[in-house]
Write a structure and sequence with these properties.
The chain has 146 residues and is α/β, with parallel strands linked by helices. Strands 2-1-3-4-5 form a five-stranded parallel sheet, sandwiched between helices.
Length: 146
């Protein structure tokens, strides 16, 4: 269990999904600090602490949409898993795709889990709560620093 606020990096380009995730985490059992970027290139800048992200914290968890502009989630996941500094950060794919090809590829690229976004708002909130509960109250996360 974390003693500090859990740092969550949400890589999502849909403003409605960002807002719903933010609202759900505000009401969560565990204190979280949500950081949002809209595409894979921006996520890499955040992780590498480049430009406006020079003071960015190391995420305890990454919530990753697959269908993103500029650099999609698949390419970002490959980059994260190829870098020793980020390999231990859990990545939860949270996407609308139900395609078996995306599921298989995500796991092969090193996703820790794959969740299809529910269409209903209440179900979406339940899924985000379950992710938060599992990753921040059940799992032991590394305290590795960059």
């Amino acid at each position: 269990m974390l003693c500090k606020a859990a740092e969550v990096l949400l890589v999502e380009d849909d403003p409605a999904d960002v807002e719903l995730t933010r609202e759900t985490l505000v009401d969560a059992k565990v204190m979280t600090s949500l950081h949002v970027v809209g595409d894979g290139l921006e996520a890499l800048a955040f992780l590498n602490r480049e430009g406006k992200y020079a003071d960015a914290p190391r995420p305890d968890l990454i919530l990753l949409d697959l269908n993103l502009p500029r650099m999609d989630g698949r390419a970002l996941l490959a980059e994260i898993r190829a870098d020793d500094r980020f390999r231990s950060i859990p990545v939860v794919v949270l996407t609308t795709s139900q395609a078996e090809e995306d599921i298989i590829k995500s796991y092969r690229l090193g996703a820790n889990c794959y969740i299809t976004k529910p269409v209903r708002l209440a179900e979406f909130a339940r899924v985000v709560n379950a992710i938060e509960d599992f990753w921040f109250t059940v799992v032991c996360l590394p305290s590795e620093k960059i």
